Amino acid sequence: MDQQRTIRACSIWRALDVIGDVPVLLIMEQCFLGVHAFDDFVARTGLARSVVNGRLKKLVDEDCLMKRPKKTGRGFHYMLTQKGRDQFPNALTMLRWQHRWEADSRDFQVRLRHATCGHATEPVPVCAHCRGEIDPRDVDWREGPGLARIVPTYERRRFNGVVTARRPGGRPLVDAMIELFGDRWATLVVRAMFTHINRFDDIQRDTLMATNILTGRLERLVKQGILRTSRYSAHADRVEYRLTEKGRDLYPVLLALLQWGDRWFADDRGAPLILTHRPCGHDLRMQVTCSECSGDLDLSNSEFEIEELGAKALMA
């Protein structure tokens, strides 16, 4: 296969092929909040009915949701499958980042409550083996047996407008995260940063992104404070891109995408990428835990509360 026309098909790429899309992420967020009916998805996302219909069909086709006839009346309920439920760590790591970096930009607060211990909590991404909190600077990676190179096909997914303006009855819980990870191109740029690919030409070769699109994504990520530029030559235009602390804190979100992709898309050869947690020396598997009791967080023991203008409403 021509190396000049292929990119690394790691599990993040495969995961983004399913969920690297703003409407899909908006719908999945509502699924985690307990929404099941078509009309409720439309009302609570602010998306057009045709968009909701198309994305629900995609999620059913991808086995993330299943359709069940309503017990009364016409139509269906959309229920999470195990594959869909396994995206919940991604939602938790997105919420963690949003709380850390974008909380002051909104006029409401989202609280996560761990039903097992009863406390309000923050998600903590830890190594499943040693239970130490994960820092990307403590993680080594190497190519795995399942790594392949593919000819990329970038589907043009159009979503015009700001995510926070799309819901008449409220806002997404993780609006900044949905805007970032709903853009596959921006996510692949961040992925490149974590694999030490920092210069424009190298990022372009790694993603095969059109140069104008790459320029736009880099400019936006710098403006958002996720990347910073650093000159590596006396020439003013010779810069490379580095993750800021805000950008580095996106690592658990990418790790959740990687693990979901490994579980559901890796073939018999194994994972495309193998990570090692240097402090304990074991292959890294992330677990999201409660900041109060250190117990594991999952969809069955997590509740979300929204506090806005002094009024609290239980959402799930």
Account of the 3D structure:
The chain has 316 residues and is α+β, with helices and mostly antiparallel strands. 37% of the residues lie in helices and 21% in strands. It contains twelve helices and 15 strands. A four-stranded antiparallel β-sheet has the order 5-4-14-15, with no helix packed on it. The chain has a three-stranded antiparallel β-sheet with strand order 7-11-12, with no helix packed on it. A two-stranded antiparallel ribbon has the order 1-8. It is globular, with a radius of gyration of 20 Å.
Highlighted features:
single chain; alpha+beta; disordered C terminus
The DSSP helix count reads 12
For the record, give the distance between the C-alpha atoms at the N and C termini, rounded to a whole number.
Answer: 48 Å
**What about the largest sheet?**
4 strands, antiparallel
Strand content: 15-25%
What's the architecture in CATH terms? Orthogonal Bundle
Helices and strands in order, then pairings?
Layout: E1 7-8, H1 11-19, H2 22-32, H3 38-45, H4 49-61, E2 65-69, E3 76-80, H5 82-85, H6 88-101, E4 109-114, E5 119-121, E6 123-127, E7 139-143, E8 149-150, H7 175-181, H8 184-194, H9 200-207, H10 211-223, E9 227-231, E10 239-243, H11 245-248, H12 251-265, E11 273-277, E12 282-283, E13 286-290, E14 302-308, E15 311-314
Antiparallel strand pairs: 1-8, 2-3, 4-5, 4-14, 6-13, 7-11, 9-10, 11-12, 14-15
